[in-house]
Design a protein that fits this description.
This protein is α+β, with helices and mostly antiparallel strands and 124 residues long. Helices cover 35% and strands 28% of the residues. A hairpin with a 2-residue loop joins strand 3 (36-39) and strand 4.
Amino acid sequence: MTWHSDQLDTIGHTEELHISSYRRDGSLRRWIPIWVVRVADDLYVRSAFGPDGGWYRNAMRDNTARIRADGIETDVTLHLANDPATNAAVEAAYKAKYRSQPAALEPTVANTAAETTVRPNAAG
């Protein structure tokens, strides 16, 4: 399923979204705040801690998560999107959006984070 334009606008402009993954029993883990960027008609997130980031490891087991941002809460399917062209566009979007926070931005644009570039798509 694709995002509606108003959802893309809302989530793409938010400072951060919250992400949670499902436990085996179907309950949600704790919500983790992460940065999100919009590139064209897609949203992207990265694990600032690379593949060892807890939310990333848990969510990528089943390629599913739940996100919430500015009144939107929905399940998403996660698609690894770490090809060079996508990563270049996502990195540029992170640098433009979060340039006022250079210390926090640095790990998000590092190579280890780039390996975890994920495109969440609205589920259902």
